[in-house]
Prior knowledge:
Elements: H1 2-16, H2 39-42, H3 58-61, H4 65-77, H5 79-100, E1 105-108, E2 111-115, E3 123-136, H6 141-208, H7 214-248, H8 277-281, H9 283-304, E4 309-322, E5 325-341, H10 349-417, H11 422-456
Antiparallel strand pairs: 1-3, 2-3, 3-4, 4-5
Helix pairs in contact: 4-6, 5-6, 6-7, 6-9, 6-11, 9-10, 10-11
Amino acid sequence: MKRHLIYIIGGSVLLSSCNLYSNYKRPEGLPIDSLYRDTTSVYNVMLSDTSNFGNTPWQDVFTDSRLQSLINKALIQNTDLQVADLTIRQAEAGLMTSRLAFLPSLSFSPQGTISSFDAGKATKTYTIPIQASWQIDAFGSLRNAKKQSEVSLLQTQVSKQAVRTSIIASIANMYYTLQMLDEQLKVTKETSEIWKKNVMAMEAMLEAGGITTSAAVAQTKANYYQILTTIPSLEQNITETENAICSLLHEAPHPIARSAFNAEKFPSSLSAGIPMQLLANRPDIKIAELKLAYAFYGTNQARAAFYPQITLGGTAGWTNSAGAAIINPPKFIASAVASLVQPLFMKGQLRANLKISKAQQEAAQLQFEQSLINAGNEVSNALRSYQTAIEQENSRKKQVEELEKAVERTNFLFTHGNTTTYLETLTAQQSLLQAQLSLISDKFDKMQAAISLYQALGGGREN
């Protein structure tokens, strides 16, 4: 009867401890079916297939050779990436420790004594033992700790990928910002030369008498100086952007070589792929899921604390001490011991730890689900921004074309027909300048939206 009772108790313990060895599984019912808005029918920018713009190698997205050179240099020299590598090494060391925890620990602790009673002859005894201790992982405590270390290592690797993606996107953004500023500076300088000639023409007409007024000349000069004031600001922005790129390159500030501004290299339509791909591509989503897995194994470990801890120990070595007698030569001695520690009353600490672990696991799952929703929002916003930039660019091109015609016609009428004033000619030129600068900004917005979408889809991953 007693034997049957022992079997029943032992079987119950084994069955109840099965969950301690379970592996993490992705939760069901995640909000992944409708992460993106229906951009295909509304915006006509996202292709309805399973390809993914984020899966495109960054070399195929950013084809400018000088930009590629900067990105390659940043991926080698950037400080944040180097720190990420060091963090991975730390996690690898922690995992190695967790794996070695399954092995027995060995120690060598020789001892020797010299004793004398009542100034008599001294006696010398010594022991040369090797001690061993081995914790049996019967209830998954060590195994779940190892799993947590594995998850921690994966988190550091994915965090490095997040840094890599951010660096690629940042370098590309700032490089195209430089190109945009160069183009704006070029247009502004060309326009300032035109307005400089306009001022000279207005002054000549004022001196000729009756053709214009001093107020019109003053207004022309004011517009000219207003244009001149934007040139130092653009040059300052260029210098600051170059310095920011140098900081990412881990280099002292210096000029950045770059190509001419060209926004036509980006495609007119992009594919976001199926929402499920975000689980495999986005570093932040991977990190959120790994945190959930870490919490899952933490809950298992909290459960394992309720079960006994079994430890085997032993000592083997040579000694010349046999109680009251001294033996020479020394004899081999060995001993073995097994211990079982079953928690009985821990003042509620074990139950509290389990409740805390469960709450942390539930919080991690909520954060994982929210990271999916946030990612879907970012992709949808980037798609909308890209389409908006395309529409604005197309409309702005038409506006610039019409304003160029207006400038040409007002100049012709003023020169030949005398049916318009020189002020109308200047107004048309001012409107053309603003439209040209806005067109440059629209093109840059399109490039920036494409980069944001590439980053939102987890682009720039290592092969």
